[in-house]
Hints:
mainly alpha
Amino acid sequence: xxxxxxxxxVTVNAAGFLIExxxxxxxxxxxxxxxxxxxxxIMLAELVFLTVLSLLALTVGHTTKVRSxxxxxxxxxxxxxxYAAPLSVMKLVIxxxxxxxxxxxxxxxxxxxxVSWTVYALICFDPYIVIPNGLGSLLGAAxxxxxxxxxxxxxxxxxxxxxxxxxxLDEMGQSVGPTKGP
Length: 182
C-alpha cells in the first residue's frame, strides 16, 4: 500500500475496480472485433503503466511520503481527466442550447461524488484527494447549472422536432395515427 490507514480508500477503489471489470467484460463480450481489440490494447497499456508505476513506487519510495509523492500527482491527473471528460458534452450543450445528450443523473452524481470526496479529504487533509475532487465538484456544479439553464429550451426543441416529423409524414401521404375509414 502507498499510504497506511487508508482502508476506506482501498475499499471504495476495490469496489469501483470490480464494477468496472464487470462492465469491461460485458463490453468485450458484446462488442465487435475491432472495438474489442481497441479496448484490449488500451487495457494492456494501462496494465503496463500501472505495473511500472507500482514497481517505481515500491523500489524508489522507501517511505510513505516518497511513495505518496510519486503516486499522488499521477492520481490527481487521472481524477481530473475523469471529471473533465464531460467538457465536450458541455460544449455541445452550449452550442445547441440543448441538454439532450447530457444525462441529469450523471451530472448530479458527479457533483455528489466530488463533494463527498472533497469533504473526506478536507477532514483528513489529503491534497491528493482534495485537489481533483474539488475541481470535480466545480465541474459537476457547472453541469447542473447548464442543465437548469437549457432544460426548458430542450423540451421546446424536442416538441418542435416531434411536430415537424409528424407533419413531414402527413405531407408524404403516410398516416401518423390511426386512420379513419373511407
